[in-house]
User: Which sequence fits this backbone?
């Protein structure tokens, strides 16, 4: 049975993951409206990833005999000054999510919930990748943004990203 405080904090994190999904869906729309379908695709895949992160927690609470409580999803931004501005927001947001996951881990340690420590390790690793990806694209954009041909070439690169649900066990 999951500890009540842990259950509440994971429920809050489900909300944060779904909020992230909503943010990236909003960014996907923004890139579509600026004729940058590759970045729009990258953001759409990011949206799908965030839903899967939330759903992994949703399943975990149930596995531990707890109750999922879905909370309202707050409004997200819909305007950014430039592609690099959108990715700067992405990077800042992912850093914030890393700190939220770290706080969940602090609670799990404090109450000696070893199953949740084990569960959260997946997110600790995932956040390293999330920050690295956003940082890489942000820095590339800073270099090419003023050159339209280079921007379109970069956009094309991101049109090939596809969603793979890393939260599900690998097929046998
Ligand atoms: Fe769920 O990793 Fe981004 O926010």
Assistant:
């Amino acid at each position: 049975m999951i500890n009540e405080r842990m259950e509440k904090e994971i429920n809050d994190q489900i909300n944060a993951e779904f909020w992230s999904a909503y943010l990236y869906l909003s960014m996907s729309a923004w890139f579509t409206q600026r004729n940058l379908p590759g970045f729009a695709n990258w953001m759409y895949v990011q949206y799908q990833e965030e839903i899967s992160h939330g759903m992994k927690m949703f399943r975990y609470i149930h596995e531990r005999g707890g109750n999922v409580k879905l909370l309202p999803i707050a409004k997200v931004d819909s305007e950014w000054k430039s592609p690099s501005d959108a990715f700067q927001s992405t990077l800042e947001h992912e850093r914030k999510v890393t700190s939220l996951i770290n706080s969940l881990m602090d609670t799990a340690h404090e109450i000696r919930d070893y199953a949740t420590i084990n569960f959260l390790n997946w997110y600790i690793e995932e956040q390293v990748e999330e920050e690295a990806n956003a940082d890489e694209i942000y820095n590339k954009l800073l270099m090419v943004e003023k050159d339209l041909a280079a921007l379109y070439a970069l956009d094309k690169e991101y049109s090939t990203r596809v969603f793979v649900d890393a939260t599900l066990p690998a097929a046998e």
In short: The chain has five helices and no strands. The mean pLDDT is 97. The radius of gyration is 17 Å. Helices lie at 4-33, 37-63, 83-110, 114-144, 148-157.
